[in-house]
Design goal:
The protein is an alpha/beta fold. Helices cover 39% and strands 12% of the residues. The strands form 2 sheets. A 6-stranded parallel beta sheet has the order 5-4-1-6-7-8, with helices on both faces. It has a two-stranded antiparallel sheet with strand order 2-3. It binds 2-phosphoglycolic acid and magnesium ion. Keywords: Calvin cycle, Carbohydrate metabolism, Hydrolase, Magnesium, Metal-binding.
Amino acid sequence: MSPFGPIDAVLFDLDGTLIDSAPDLGAAVDRMRTDRGLDSLPLSHYRHMAGAGARGMLGLAFDMKPDHPDFPAMREEFFVNYENCMTERTHAFDGVAELIAQLDARGLPWGVVTNKAERFSLPLTRAIPLFATARTVVCGDTTPHSKPHPEPLFEAARRIGLAPERCLYVGDDERDIIAGRAAGMGTIAATYGYLGNKADPAAWGAHASIDTPLALLNWLN
Ligand SMILES: O=C(O)COP(=O)(O)O
Ligand SMILES: [Mg+2]
């Protein structure tokens, strides 16, 4: 039996759920190392923190915390580097294109709720053809709150014109599941994302988990 009620729309997290943006996030911060004469570090060094944005990337590249006095300037340099490369290596996870095609064929509206700022998420989703049929893209700064607060999820449901209870939220991080549950949505943890075997979706309280994008179809009727 389904752990949630009938679903009329699917909302997705972006990084680590629909797209693998880790190679470009890692390249943007690694460029800052080589610009300073430091060794380049492999993508595997950065990948597991790709969902944590500038804080995660600068922490791994320079062991720098957000309370460091240079953090704001370093973050802006990282942002500019990222803007310049963010569509170079970023791609949808295997199976995402087929999943979206299935949702579109079934007439199920879908959208994106990400913590990534509009400055990056809007151009990125416009550049990738997969997102042409997304009904909405709600970003970390679209509303006054970001996940784990439920407000961006409420905003996405409002834009699609459905009650939150009719929406499913799929994400790869605990904050996604906390936000989805607080919004009253069915929640699915994507374990193929960045946390990998460090993730414990059962402890997060997700209604279910999927280890491939296409496995989501098992939760839709
Ligand atoms: O860039 C971030 O902060 C994370 O983005 P996400 O919410 O799409 O995983
Ligand atoms: Mg994510």
